[in-house]
Amino acid sequence: MYLKVSAKILLSSVLIVIVYLTIALTWASLSVEYLLTEEAIANEESILTIKQNDILLKIKDPTFYEHAGLDLSQGQGLTTITSSLARDIFLFRVKLPGIKGSFQSFYRGVFNCCKKIDLGRDMMALILNKNLTKELQLQLYVSSSYMGSYDGRQIRGLPAAAETYFNKPLAELSDDEFIALVAMLKAPNYFHPEKGAKHLESRIYKIKKILAGTCKPDGWFDTEYKHCTSGA
């Protein structure tokens, strides 16, 4: 009897998840065109230098050009550049009208509540990847990612962060300066050049070891690199 009840509960849970993801996929498919028309997409020309591009992808999304929006690469965790961008585009940047807006509010609430286990964003990432080239995804990610607050204002995008924190254009940053910006992307106010300088310094050191190949992520979900210390 207990096994039958457990099986029914499990089956019901699976069906609920399937329905939830199907609705999320449908909603994202119907909303993506409107949302992308609201984005300031200039062209596919890279904002980054070739070396900066390589550094960013090795740390944030090693198989960016190969995956369909989702990936579980070594050290990738559950978030790709595509899924990070999908979260912002579908849930936070533009308010959708009507019934689509109601679903948007619902999915935003689910994400805010349960972001570590919410699979709705994954459906949005799949749809975004089908409707936006990799080059444009990367351009939007680089130009619009939240990069902490400074003097009471939000800093958006790596170009603005370069000017704010290093007083120079993004293309003129040294490798160490650019790595600092990449390090900030994980938690911009925690790894802040002023408010979290010690935390930032520690993460920069670990990222350098990853880039140099002297330390590797410890499993699929390791984005902390806690083992990449001086003794690693």
Automatic annotation (TrEMBL):
The chain crosses the membrane at residues 9-30. Its main location: membrane. Residues 122-205 form the Glycosyl transferase family domain. It catalyses: [GlcNAc-(1->4)-Mur2Ac(oyl-L-Ala-gamma-D-Glu-L-Lys-D-Ala-D-Ala)](n)-di-trans,octa-cis-undecaprenyl diphosphate + beta-D-GlcNAc-(1->4)-Mur2Ac(oyl-L-Ala-gamma-D-Glu-L-Lys-D-Ala-D-Ala)-di-trans,octa-cis-undecaprenyl diphosphate = [GlcNAc-(1->4)-Mur2Ac(oyl-L-Ala-gamma-D-Glu-L-Lys-D-Ala-D-Ala)](n+1)-di-trans,octa-cis-undecaprenyl diphosphate + di-trans,octa-cis-undecaprenyl diphosphate + H(+); Preferential cleavage: (Ac)2-L-Lys-D-Ala-|-D-Ala. Also transpeptidation of peptidyl-alanyl moieties that are N-acyl substituents of D-alanine. Keywords: Cell membrane, Cell shape, Cell wall biogenesis/degradation, Glycosyltransferase, Membrane, Peptidoglycan synthesis, Transferase, Transmembrane, Transmembrane helix. The keyword Nucleotide-binding does not apply. Pathway: Cell wall biogenesis; peptidoglycan biosynthesis. The keyword Transmembrane helix applies. It is found in: Cell membrane. This is Glycosyl transferase family 51 domain-containing protein. The lineage of its organism: Bacteria, Pseudomonadati, Pseudomonadota, Gammaproteobacteria, Alteromonadales.
